[in-house]
Design goal:
This protein is mainly beta. It has a 15-stranded antiparallel sheet that branches. A hairpin with a 5-residue loop joins β8 and β9. It starts with 12 loop residues before the first helix and ends with a strand.
Length: about 260
């Protein structure tokens, strides 16, 4: 059975969990990923980012799919200096389109363009310059094995520097490792490593370590993937958060 192909309602909870862990799985889903960043900014306050991440696959032909993923961040930014107020609103939207084989083996891959759209509602919440880059993912997912592991990477360059925030050149590296138990329970680690290539070396990287647990539930016949994890930033810029608490609810719509 190939869990990246067409999905059927009779999939077990364990198989649904493994499908949810595949970034280029042929499955419509809407993840809501909430990241609470502790001790963020010069005032060491709490930042909260809710990422709304609809995933929509498009069949090109019997051999290829395009998996689209859109990330819309809803941001609550703490005061950045004494007397400042908390800022709430939208951040910059990131859209990715992965071209991926429709009938892969145990090694699955996808690659394609990524675009950053300046949808931020406040200058503190994003950059007013459009961006574009490349994104890729490779993972191992095999029927009968409890392990799902791989890495997702992208790099986005600003297309101009005339808008608020100036030019940027940012990378994201997200390795992931999951161990699945029968019944839809799984252990997971999926740290989001970032690099700001325009920053000084000492301020360039954010490197988290940690992990958590996930579980497949059902609301009626609708599968829901839930996940709770925590990450400590062993490397972070001076004003970066030191801890991140991540909670995710993913609504899955099998064919």
């Amino acid at each position: 059975m190939c869990l990246s192909g067409a999905v059927h309602a009779e999939l077990s909870a364990e198989e649904l969990a493994k499908l949810a862990q595949n970034p280029v799985g042929n499955l419509v889903s809407i993840p809501f990923q909430n990241n609470t960043n502790l001790n963020f900014g010069p005032e060491k306050k709490t930042q909260n980012i809710l990422n709304i991440q609809p995933v929509i696959p498009v069949s090109v032909n019997e051999d290829w799919n395009i998996i689209t993923r859109t990330i819309v961040p809803v941001v609550s930014q703490p005061a950045l200096y004494p007397g400042d107020d908390r800022t709430n609103g939208l951040g910059d939207t990131v859209f990715t389109a992965f071209l991926s084989p429709a009938k892969p083996g145990s090694v699955i891959w996808g690659a394609g363009p990524v675009v950053q759209l300046p949808t931020n509602t406040d200058s503190q919440l994003g950059n007013r310059n459009w961006g574009m880059g490349l994104s890729g993912v490779v993972l191992h997912l095999e029927h009968g094995s409890p392990w799902v592991y791989g890495v997702l990477v992208n790099n986005i360059w600003s297309l101009s520097d005339s808008g608020t925030g100036g030019s940027y050149n940012n990378a994201t590296i997200q390795p992931f490792l999951n161990y699945n138990f029968p019944g839809g329970l799984y252990l997971t680690t999926s740290p989001i490593i970032t690099a700001n290539w325009k920053a000084e070396d000492s301020q360039r990287w954010t490197v988290p370590l940690g992990g958590g647990v996930g579980k497949i539930f059902h609301i009626g016949k609708l599968p829901v993937n839930t996940q709770l994890s925590a990450y400590y930033n062993v490397v972070t810029p001076d004003d970066g958060a030191n801890w991140q608490i991540r909670f995710q609810v993913q609504f899955m719509f099998p064919k």
